[in-house]
Write a structure and sequence with these properties.
The protein is mainly α. Helix content is 78%, strand content 3%. α5 runs parallel beside α8.
Length: 290
């Protein structure tokens, strides 16, 4: 959600707010007030004071209007939603077709869950509670999208390394070190040892990447199964509270996943801008060709 707005923010928004003027199009109201006062003040400077007073009165009245504040908050939320959906859309576009479809299926499950929640109709379906459900689902979708992206990046790195070739190179370097006399040829020994350490580090990173892939895939499956279970339980129980409790529990458990992702932030460093936010609802993705 956008940062909490202050009274000064509303005043600034009122200062630049435009209204449609016949023949002139959209124009800031306060500019027209100041412009009129400036022109009249040439003949009588008293109009400058009247213009300044009118400007302050206008900004104070509009900036303090509950209706205007609600309008501004709504516009900020809509703008945040549009930016959020654009980030998600770009992230989904970068996925391979199979992962793109995998994300779409989870998104559809989320929409079904919100549809069940609205159909239950109880007090639990009040707007603020429904929004909380959307936020929880978006948290899961955001983590899911980051995991899909990381899976592709790790796979790309894993596939770019020839493990057999690297292991042979390590054995060759180890044999060379055993054959030479470190005391007699210190420069060559240091060079071979440095190369060996680099090769061992590359092999270690490869093992770490493979282990991370297993964790990522396990987390992806867990999220998919949890979202399906939430939908099934909500439909069977017919109780809004069951849906809320399950969503709260699942998002709490996902803190472990986020903690793991922070611990391995070097694996996720190239994911670009985060898709996490506090949007109005689930993202509406345009059709993307596979």
């Amino acid at each position: 959600m956008p940062d909490r707005l202050t009274y000064l923010d509303y005043v600034k928004e009122a200062f630049s707010r435009k209204v449609r003027v016949p023949l002139l199009g959209p124009m800031p109201m306060n500019w027209m007030i100041l412009g009129t006062a400036a022109v009249l003040g040439i003949a009588n400077p008293g109009f400058w004071l009247l213009g300044a007073a009118a400007e302050l009165a206008y900004l104070g009245f509009v900036g303090g209007s509950a209706r205007f504040q609600k309008l501004v908050r709504g516009e900020r939320l809509l703008e945040a939603q549009q930016k959020y959906e654009e980030r998600v859309h770009q992230a989904v576009l970068r996925l391979e077709p199979l992962n793109r479809e995998r994300y779409r299926r989870l998104l559809e499950e989320g929409r079904k869950i919100l549809g069940i929640s609205a159909a239950l109709g109880d007090v639990d379906s009040l707007a603020d509670v429904q929004d909380q459900k959307a936020r929880n689902l978006n948290q899961l979708l955001g983590i899911f999208l980051r995991l899909l992206t990381s899976s592709e990046l790790i796979n790309e790195n894993v596939e770019s390394l020839d493990r057999v070739e690297l292991e042979n190179a390590i054995r060759s370097a180890e044999s060379r070190l055993e054959e030479i006399d470190p005391a007699a040829d210190q420069v060559l020994a240091r060079s071979l040892q440095g190369t060996l350490e680099i090769q061992r580090k590359r092999l270690e990173n490869h093992d770490r990447a493979l282990a991370s892939l297993d964790v990522v895939e396990a987390e992806l499956l867990r999220i998919e199964q949890q979202v399906r279970l939430i939908r099934e339980e909500a439909a069977v129980s017919g109780k809004p509270q069951v849906l809320s409790d399950r969503l709260d529990a699942v998002t709490s458990h996902m803190e472990e996943t986020e903690h793991w992702m922070r611990e391995h932030q070097d694996l996720f460093a190239s994911l670009g801008e985060s898709t996490e936010t506090d949007p109005l609802g689930l993202p509406q993705l345009p059709e993307i060709e596979g």
